[in-house]
Amino acid sequence: MTQNIKFIQGNEVCVEAALYAGLTFYAGxxxxxxxxxxxxxxxxxxxxxxxxxxxxxxxxxxxxxxxxSLTGNKVMTAxxxxxxxxxxxxxxxxxxxxxPCVIVNVQRGxxxxxxxxxxxxxxxxxxxxxxxxxxxxxxxxxxxxxxLFEITVDAFNMAETYxxxxxxxxxxxxxxxxxxxxxxEPGELPLVERLKTAFKEGVDYHPYLPREDGRLPMSDFGGIxxxxxTGLVHDMWGFxxxxxxxxxxxxxxxxxxxxxxxxxxxxxxxxxxxDASIILVSYGCSARSARHVVENRRKRGEKLGLIExxxxxxxxxxxxxxxxxxxxxxxxxxxNMGQLVHLVKMNVARPDKVFLCNRIDGVFISPTDxxxxxxxxxxxxx
Amino acid sequence: xxVKKFIRExxxxxxxxxxxxxGIVLNAMLRALSALGISKNEIVVVSGIGCSARISGxxxxxxxxxxxxxxxxxxxxxxxxxxxxNVIVPMGDGDALAIGGNHFIHAARRNIDMTAIVMNNRIYxxxxxxxxxxxxxxxxxxxxxxKNIDHDFDIAELSRAAGASYVARTTTYHVQQLTEMIKEAxxxxxxxxxxxxxxxxxxxxxxxxxxxxxxxxxxxxxxTTPIGSKAKQENPALIERGVFVQRELPEYCSEYxxxxxxxxxGTEK
Lengths: 382, 269
Ligand SMILES: Cc1ncc(C[n+]2csc(CCOP(=O)(O)OP(=O)(O)O)c2C)c(N)n1
Ligand code: SF4
Hints:
The complex is a heterodimer. Chain A is an alpha/beta fold. In chain A, 37% of the residues lie in helices and 20% in strands. The termini of chain A are far apart. Chain B has an eight-stranded mixed sheet with strand order 2-1-3-4-6-5-8-7, sandwiched between helices. Chain B is globular, with a radius of gyration of 19 Å. Chains A and B meet through strand 2, helix 3, helix 5 and strand 9 of A and strand 2, helix 3, helix 5 and helix 11 of B. Strand 9 (228-230) of chain A pairs parallel with strand 2 of chain B. The complex binds thiamine diphosphate and iron/sulfur cluster. Residues 49-52, 68, 92-95, 119, 121, 123-127, 132, 200 of chain B line the site of thiamine diphosphate (TPP). Residues 49-52, 68, 92-95, 119, 121, 123-127, 132, 200 of chain B line the site of thiamine diphosphate.
């Protein structure tokens, strides 16, 4: 059998993986550096009788995919910072109404229009806290095209498993870089299909009554069960309620279904961690430079290790707590003013041993940038 | 004619004030659907936020109660993904034309097959009487305590210009005409707008000294006239009722489907 190997941009990998996962509906609004996702899906989706629609803005885009998810489709939208800001309202709706969907944010630099064509990783906190109210979210990322393929498929699977929006937090380097990727055969990666209710017509179906395992079987719009979906606090029928017991129960359900499953959701990779005394923690494109430094230093016998996080939210604190317990120093490598570094500090015994190596100027962080910070930490002068 | 079969009795009583026009619109909508004999499973009601938008919860169809102003965007996702469904979108005037104005003109421009029922009470009812884009110059609202200096839209003109292929207007007083218009709008293949002047005695009538619900409804009789009537020529201030636009234009889902069909033929060769 010939292997299906492609040499493509990360944005195209995301498209290939989404289609592999079963994507049938995409709505979006063009924005650099995510636009290639829309352009490729505009070609690909009609070929499989799927739907591509360019909406009037990102608010409408996320609303449209939520509507299409309710008729039984696997759905996605893609954007960058300014559009991701506009999507926060719809994101909260999808969390509240428990609608499976995937939202890609190919991050760019700066607040506002910022640095449209440059790299950044500064939407990490926004991915979790951009939309108002208490809630939990799943956000994932990757540093290579092969990983990106798997993580994208994972994102769709988790959206179905937990009935929730999943954010793919990519960055400009990953989105635009060309790299080899091996496209798996159908069936090679497991896919999670939508859990549908087995209730027959005429039986009172409760769309928001979780099963014992916390999952909620769905029924498609247009199908035999008619029910209400709302962004208001709602009871098991999906009808608005301001009963305190119902409100409290719903909040716990929405947060617990994700945060209590952090062990299942956490994806990460480790390099040379067994005896590491200096640990680098990184994610996305920054992890590429971090890995380069770790591999080179190991060749010189220095005990450096790397934890590359692929799940950023819910934050896999157990990974950091357990794997960093014996570290002399921890260096968080990311391209923002320090976001993940706060989470790492919160989860280690000696936060004063956690340092940040960052870049905020739109330039891809290099191994030299990391080496320069290491020199200071290791007391070798500036 | 029984419309009870379309009601979710479990969720009553409703939240509307006594004399609110929105209940009349609900009734007309259900009578129209009953007369058309469409199966309940083929109807999706999508609404935003507002007193008007609460209609969706009370009816036994697939119902999607969404975000303020965004109903048409959600509805577009539902309709594009399953074009066989009948999509009805009850909206408030603020919902449709302030926060949702952009979605409104773009849904009209695409001519996507759905029915927007704009329940125009000229005020933000749910939040207690702030002015909307339909309140009108010189009127009073909690956020226009001296007088409103914002001019209003003409919903019918706006809809026509934006590309809607069915546009009609009536009032809660003319409830039979309303039922007929909703029927026509649902049957029409394309984006349909039915504007209904619907009274909000609590937050618009009272503040503007228009009396209660009965007086407001009576004013709908005296202040409106059929499109092109002699009365309108004599008194241009009268508001016209009737069907403003009914035209055949390519429908969005059909257009998209034609592309899919063409691609299929292309790959078969
Ligand atoms: C994003 C957002 N902004 C503001 C509100 C508050 N709000 C709720 S309903 C409403 C206006 C309702 O007026 P209209 O749409 O005309 O419907 P009515 O209540 O008069 O039927 C407003 C401003 C909201 N829910 N969401
Ligand atoms: S506030 Fe106005 S629109 Fe709202 S229910 Fe009362 S009368 Fe109706």
